[in-house]
């Protein structure tokens, strides 16, 4: 027996008008009320800043149950993928919807491996940046510039062209990321190597120098591969929503991903791993933890416990659980019995999770609380942490972009607003205006 389509009735108490709104139900997760016809039927907009209750699209890629702390990629639990899969296999799964056969995986790996080189002219872009530029600033610029290199061959309405763009982005992102790092340390850019795995190739592009032979440590390779898997997708997070939003106008995929990188950079999103390590360094010792916990709870202080809390997870982030365990194993296997920052992070977690403030608000460690400890153990500098996230999340971004482009129902993302500015008023000639006291300030002495 097929289920009756459900509706929800909205009653405007002022006018007595009733509107039936259809309910949309996914395979899992809470039902959604379809309010797309709300304005036409009632004259009301829906107001939901930050999308606290709004599903912006239908998607088959990733499922999160934030109450239970569950994360599934195409239905597969993150714990199983972390333990048994590889990053490229996960990338295939996210892009194409199914786990690949051995032959499909070999073919996909060959395609990605053979797209890792970047156009030689791109190197000139890196030289244009200050040596102390943040690598995320370089990423935004260089990835955006890929549109200029592949613009002619990217017809976004052709599924095959979209697939080629997706492969190029996944393949070239580590090369660009490592080049951004090499630029910041004044070393020559290292070419990719086709005999290495995705993670191993990234490590050699980061750490090899022309004067010495570089051997990839298999423990480091596996740890990096794991972090890439854990960061590969997370449904409609801010950067993925940005990529979809940019792409909804029909923009070029390289430009859309550059927009995603910009969104990821913020400390409330992918910038949190860098912010966590900087916070732990500032806290310094266990004795100082209570002072910082007090600051995090003080509403007049902008300080927040970085790496804590999540919009969706109201339980322990399943990725953080895996990373916490990996930190212990990795530190042991690289012969570093401990990292003082890891010890401090463990203690901070313990103290925070006994505190009413964090318990009441259900604030737990998120993916970024411990990931920086692993990056440190791998020798990756702190300003590269968000870049590492961008390399991994590129898969999610392009999977969502491809899903959106293939959806015949997709529309340009054009939110409405509640206007709170001045009412209509008439233009005043300059000689009659009174100073309002909020013009621009002089910029003397700043770097130009
Ligand atoms: N430290 C102290 N208080 C916090 C924190 C925190 N890290 N996170 C949330 N709160 C409080 C917040 O002040 C608010 O309190 P009240 O109800 O008294 O006003 C309550 O908890 C709810 O927080 P919110 O800001 O309304 O929640 P949100 O869903 O808008 O924000 C968040 C989610 C991740 C931006 C936020 O928890 C945060 O800023 N965390 C620190 C930054 C961080 O670790 N970000 C990485 C997120 S995971 C990686 C990724 O996917 O990007």
Polypeptide structure, described:
The protein has helices spanning 38-42, 78-84, 87-96, 102-113, 122-127, 135-150, 159-185, 198-207, 218-231, 238-247, 253-264, 272-283, 289-297, 318-333, 340-352, 356-360, 367-377, 385-406; strands spanning 7-11, 18-24, 32-33, 62-65, 70-73, 76-77. It has 448 residues and is mainly alpha-helical. Carboxymethyl coenzyme *A binds next to helix 17.
Mean pLDDT reading = 93
Number of strands: 6
* Helix and strand run: EEEHEEEHHHHHHHHHHHHHHHHH
Radius of gyration: 24 Å
Largest sheet: 3 strands, antiparallel
Beta-strand percent range: 5-15%
Q: Tell me the overall shape.
A: globular
Amino- and carboxy-terminal Cα gap: 69 Å
Low-confidence stretches: none
User: Helix count, per DSSP?
Assistant: 18
Roughly how much helix do the residues carry, as a percent range? 40-55%
Name the strands of the widest sheet in spatial order.
1-2-3
List the bound ligands.
carboxymethyl coenzyme *A
**Which structural class do you get from the secondary structure elements?**
mainly alpha
Write the layout of secondary structure elements.
Blueprint: E1 7-11, E2 18-24, E3 32-33, H1 38-42, E4 62-65, E5 70-73, E6 76-77, H2 78-84, H3 87-96, H4 102-113, H5 122-127, H6 135-150, H7 159-185, H8 198-207, H9 218-231, H10 238-247, H11 253-264, H12 272-283, H13 289-297, H14 318-333, H15 340-352, H16 356-360, H17 367-377, H18 385-406
Antiparallel strand pairs: 1-2, 2-3, 4-5, 5-6
Helix pairs in contact: 3-18, 6-7, 6-11, 7-8, 7-18, 8-9, 9-14, 9-17, 9-18, 10-11, 10-18, 11-18, 12-17, 14-17
This protein binds carboxymethyl coenzyme *A.
């Amino acid at each position: 027996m097929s289920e009756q389509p459900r509706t929800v009735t909205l009653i405007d108490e002022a006018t007595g008008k009733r509107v039936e709104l259809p309910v949309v139900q996914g395979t899992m997760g809470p039902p959604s009320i379809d309010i797309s016809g709300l304005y036409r039927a009632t004259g009301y907009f829906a107001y939901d800043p930050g999308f606290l209750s709004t599903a912006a699209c239908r998607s088959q890629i990733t499922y999160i149950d934030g109450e239970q702390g569950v994360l599934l990629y195409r239905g597969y639990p993150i714990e199983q993928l972390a333990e048994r899969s590889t990053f490229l296999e996960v990338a295939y799964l996210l892009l194409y919807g199914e786990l690949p056969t051995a032959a499909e995986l070999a073919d996909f790996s060959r395609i990605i491996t053979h797209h890792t080189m970047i156009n030689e002219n791109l190197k000139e872009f890196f030289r244009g940046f200050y040596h102390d530029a943040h690598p995320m600033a370089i990423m935004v610029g260089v990835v955006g510039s890929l549109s200029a290199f592949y613009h002619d061959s990217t017809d976004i309405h052709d599924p095959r062209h979209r697939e080629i763009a997706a492969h190029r982005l996944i393949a070239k992102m580590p090369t660009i990321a490592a080049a951004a790092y090499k630029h910041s340390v004044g070393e020559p850019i290292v070419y990719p190597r086709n005999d290495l795995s995705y993670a191993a190739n990234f490590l050699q592009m980061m750490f090899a120098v022309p004067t010495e032979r570089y051997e990839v440590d298999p423990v480091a390779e596996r740890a990096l591969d794991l972090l890439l898997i854990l960061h590969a997708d997370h449904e409609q997070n801010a950067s993925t929503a940005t990529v979809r939003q940019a792409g909804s106008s029909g923009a070029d995929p390289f430009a859309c991903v550059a927009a995603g990188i910009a969104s990821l950079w913020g400390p409330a999103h992918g910038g949190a791993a860098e912010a966590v390590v900087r916070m732990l360094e500032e806290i310094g010792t266990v004795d100082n933890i209570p002072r910082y916990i007090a600051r995090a709870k003080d509403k007049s202080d902008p300080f927040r416990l970085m790496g804590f809390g999540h919009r969706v997870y109201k339980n322990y982030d399943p990725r953080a659980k895996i990373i916490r365990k990996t930190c212990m194993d990795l530190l042991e296997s690289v012969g570093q019995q401990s990292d003082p920052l890891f010890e401090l992070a463990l203690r901070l977690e313990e103290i925070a999770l006994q505190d009413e403030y964090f318990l009441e608000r259900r604030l737990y460690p998120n993916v970024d609380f411990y990931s920086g400890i692993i990056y440190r153990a791998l020798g990756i500098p702190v300003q590269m942490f968000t870049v590492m996230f961008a390399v991994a999340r590129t898969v999610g971004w392009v999977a969502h972009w491809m899903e959106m482009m293939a959806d015949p129902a997709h529309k340009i993302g054009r939110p409405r607003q509640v206007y709170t500015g001045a009412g209509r008023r008439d233009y005043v000639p300059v000689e009659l205006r009174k100073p309002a006291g909020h013009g621009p300030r002089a910029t003397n002495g700043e770097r130009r």
